[in-house]
Write a structure and sequence with these properties.
The chain has 527 residues and is an all-alpha fold. Helix content is 70%, strand content 1%. The protein has 20 helices and 2 strands. The chain has helices at residues 15-39, 45-78, 91-109, 112-143, 146-171, 173-188, 199-213, 233-245, 250-273, 280-296, 309-315, 320-334, 337-344, 347-368, 374-402, 414-422, 427-434, 437-452, 456-472, 487-505, and strands at 87-89, 303-305. Helix 3 (91-109) runs antiparallel to helix 9 (250-273), helix 5 (146-171) packs parallel to helix 15 and helix 6 packs parallel to helix 14 (347-368). The longest helix has 34 residues, at 45-78. The chain is globular, with a radius of gyration of 23 Å.
């Protein structure tokens, strides 16, 4: 019941700790994309720090303004404190845009400016696709079991947000361990640090000081300057024209933006599991429009509601932590401080914050779903392990080529695939699972959760949807294509047929007794 004396404060003391965690998350993304654009795609600093980074800052500010308003509205509606949804550049989609859109253009033309133009064109068109997710988002949220939505997020958290940063810690243990123990002490163990210093801030300070003392960080003002965000309408139009002249790029663009609006839906569900309710359609439109604004101002990279709301909720954050990010990130972008921070703060000092975000998301998921549904969460995580393997196998082949090894077969070569299988590396299966991993994880998590609850028709609907998507290459395919009745799509059709037919012959006594206690609503009769 709403308390008439309740007043929601946008900024609380707890926002300070949460700010350093979210700021670090955004900072790492900006550092990574700046490094790849500058050193892999040879983009001049004027484009990287003068256009892309300020454009990303504009997109972040635009989205955060909406999410602050949503948090205030939700708090006033419920009469209690809520935590605003975190917001920033989508990490998985960022890598797809880097190596699936910008990279191919650069490698084909050796023109970094054209690659950037196509990138912002793809970002703008992708924002339209992401915003259109609002049409189906609320319905998808109603029919999809929580275990499926949160399980696929846990997969991303486990391998990309947790394991990769943890590996970074072990690559640079002097810096990484110094930061990691502080994160475990202050954020995981939740012990009060001296003088109430936020654990994220102290971890960055200690890690950076250690790095400076051993010569692995430096103070450089080379990139500092004034880079005001400006609209790049002509470059945007040129990029969109190139996209329509090369429509095969849409085969990368459309599926990844479908992923992006489903990621938003999953993150809204994650917030709901933690106790804060937000309208999924509004969030999806916000992410799409934010991406389009960023593209207009020079950033190719989609923005989204972030993974990690439960972690910030656990810290007691309100909306102040994202307001802080909306202030600090633009200042750093406009004055070129990102280049300064890139030299000063080693990745290993910031990585433990991401490990904490992964731990919090997985832990919160385990506490917010039925105990029996952990089977669904687990299977939803598995495709992301395959996605991780494919990324690393690709990196291995690239590294071998870069070191001068000649005559390398490409991944997918028939002889190499057979040799890998003999060594126990199931390349073909992992490839299929990795293609559209977030959708695959969501679908299988939903199927398993629905079967556990005896909702066979609901499970059959997801299997049928998977069959249709695999026919067109949305999942289990390298790109979109005309319908192809492949073995995977046929397998889904067989599974869907069984799930629709079984309730016709099912009797309640068919279900075996289970020693596990049933959660509320579990074990409902078959539909």
């Amino acid at each position: 019941m709403r308390d008439g004396s309740y007043t929601y404060t946008l900024v609380s003391r707890s926002d300070f700790s949460a700010f350093w965690a979210l700021f670090t998350d955004n900072l790492i993304n900006l550092m990574v994309l700046a490094g790849i654009c500058q050193f892999v795609f040879q983009m001049p600093a004027e484009i990287v720090f003068g256009r892309i980074v300020p454009g990303a800052a504009v997109a972040i500010v635009a989205g955060i303004a909406v999410y602050v308003w949503l948090a205030k509205r939700a708090a006033e509606k419920t009469g209690r404190d809520v935590t605003a949804l975190p917001y920033g550049i989508s990490t998985p989609v960022m890598f797809v845009y880097l190596f699936g859109v910008i990279g191919p253009i650069y490698w084909a033309t050796n023109d970094p400016v054209l690659a950037w133009q196509v990138g912002i064109g793809a970002g703008f068109m992708g924002g339209i696709v992401a915003a259109m997710g609002a049409i189906v988002g609320p319905w998808l949220k109603r029919v999809t079991p929580r275990a499926g939505m949160l399980g696929t997020l846990c997969g991303i958290a486990l391998v990309f947000i947790g394991t990769v940063p943890l590996a970074t810690v072990f690559e640079n243990p002097f810096v990484g361990f110094a930061s990691m123990i502080i994160i475990l002490w202050g954020l995981v163990g939740r012990f009060r640090l001296p003088f109430n210093i936020p654990a994220g801030l102290l971890a960055l300070i200690v890690g950076t000081l250690v790095a400076l003392s051993i010569g692995e960080a430096k103070i450089s003002f080379a990139g500092v300057g004034f880079y005001p965000p400006l609209p790049y309408v002509g470059d945007l139009i040129a990029g969109i024209q190139h996209l329509f002249a090369n429509p095969e790029l849409f085969l990368v663009l459309v599926p990844v933006q479908i992923y992006n609006f489903i990621e938003t839906m999953n993150n809204v569900e994650s917030a709901e599991a933690a106790g804060d309710h937000y309208p999924v359609a509004t969030c999806q439109v916000t992410d799409g429009v934010g991406t389009m604004i960023g593209a207009l101002f020079g950033s190719p990279f989609p923005t989204t509601a972030y993974i990690g709301h439960p972690a910030y909720k656990r810290m007691g954050a309100h909306a102040g932590y994202i307001i802080g990010v909306a202030v600090v990130i633009p200042v750093a972008a406009v004055f070129g401080l990102l280049a300064f921070l890139n030299d000063l703060i080693p990745v290993a000092a910031a990585a433990p914050v991401l490990v904490f975000v992964a731990l919090s998301l997985i832990t919160n998921t385990a506490m917010s779903v039925k105990p029996a549904h952990m089977a669904a969460v687990t299977i939803a995580m598995m495709p992301h392990v395959s996605a991780f393997l494919m990324v690393k196998w690709g990196s291995l082949m690239g590294a071998l080529g870069a070191t001068g090894v000649e005559g390398l077969p490409r991944l997918g070569d028939e002889a190499l695939t057979a040799a890998l299988l003999q060594q126990g590396a199931h390349f073909q299966g992992h490839l299929a699972l990795s293609q559209g991993a977030i959708l695959t994880g969501l679908i299988w998590g939903a199927i398993v959760a629905s079967v556990i609850d005896g909702r066979f028709r609901n499970a059959g609907g997801f299997a049928l949807a998977a069959a249709v998507m695999s026919l067109f290459g949305v999942i289990h395919g390298a790109s979109l294509h005309w319908p192809d009745f492949n073995p995977v799509s046929m397998g889904y059709l067989i599974a869907a047929a069984f799930l629709y037919i079984y309730p016709l012959v099912h009797v309640q006594e068919d279900r075996a007794e289970d020693d596990l206690p049933l959660a509320e609503g579990q074990g409902t009769p078959a539909e």
